[in-house]
Specification:
Layout (H helix, E strand, L loop, with lengths): L6 E6 L6 H13 L3 E6 L1 H5 L7 H12 L7 H4 L2 H4 L4 E7 L1 H8 L6 H11 L4 E7 L7 H8 L4 E3 L2 E2 L10 E3 L4 H8 L13
Parallel strand pairs: 1-2, 1-3, 3-4, 4-5
Antiparallel strand pairs: 4-7, 6-7
Helix pairs in contact: 1-3, 6-8
Bound molecules: flavin mononucleotide.
């Protein structure tokens, strides 16, 4: 299904090394005519690192989406009752957020958005990015993969020699993964090597 005119929630969590790639694919979604509604986890609003600062991220996200990001649990909650998103993407999705989502924990704006959105039976797309994807988080990825209305951006081992448990989504496949998830279909193949 085309993304033109679709309302897409884009939820960023604290995998800061993938933010730059994420911003580029968000720009592509805007080019495709999608309306983006940004949401940030608490960590991505607070943590400064060698990859950038929250102020810079917020400015960039405002510029790309033309919207004020959702930054709190209370402003994410209406996503359920108002049902205004056609689809929600957690991009990038940390191991932390994946583990909490798989366990039914709702303690950040992104997790609130996911819970509210799933409540109304709409598709949720996950772009995983975590060093423990083949470690502690493998079971959570499995749980999410097997959950109703949850789809994945294809992912692979980004650096098996130095980070043998690391899994990172192919961000450039976000758009086709969203197009299929809107039809409740999973982009295949899911596992793609780097
Ligand atoms: C510089 C830096 C880079 C990080 N990169 C990742 C990452 O790629 N994947 C991940 O799962 N966690 C990463 N983390 C850890 C998360 O930011 C941390 O687990 C945080 O609690 C995530 O919260 P959130 O899921 O609510 O955004 C990184 C932390 C820092 C400081």
């Amino acid at each position: 299904m085309e993304l033109y005119g679709k309302n897409i929630g884009v939820a960023l969590t604290g995998s800061f090394c993938t933010f730059e790639k994420t911003f580029k694919v968000l720009e592509d979604l805007v080019q495709a005519g999608a309306n983006l509604y940004p949401i940030l986890s608490d960590s991505s609003q607070k943590i400064s690192s060698r990859f950038g600062t929250p102020d810079l991220y917020l400015e960039r996200i405002r510029t790309i989406t033309g919207r004020e990001p959702i930054l709190s649990i209370e402003t994410a909650e209406p996503i359920g009752p108002s049902s205004y998103l056609d689809i929600l993407a957690i991009v990038p999705c940390t191991g932390n957020t994946a583990a909490k989502l798989a366990s039914g924990i709702t303690d950040s704006p992104v997790l609130m958005a996911a819970k509210a959105h799933l409540r109304v039976n709409k598709p949720l797309v996950i772009a995983i990015s975590t060093n423990d994807g083949l470690g502690m988080n493998l079971k959570n990825i499995g749980t999410l993969f097997n959950s109703k209305n949850i789809y994945f951006v294809p992912f692979g081992q980004d650096n098996w020699e130095k980070k043998p448990n690391s899994l990172v989504a192919h961000m450039e496949l976000l758009r086709p993964a969203l197009e299929l998830a809107l039809e409740h279909r999973q982009y295949q193949p899911v596992l793609i090597s780097y």
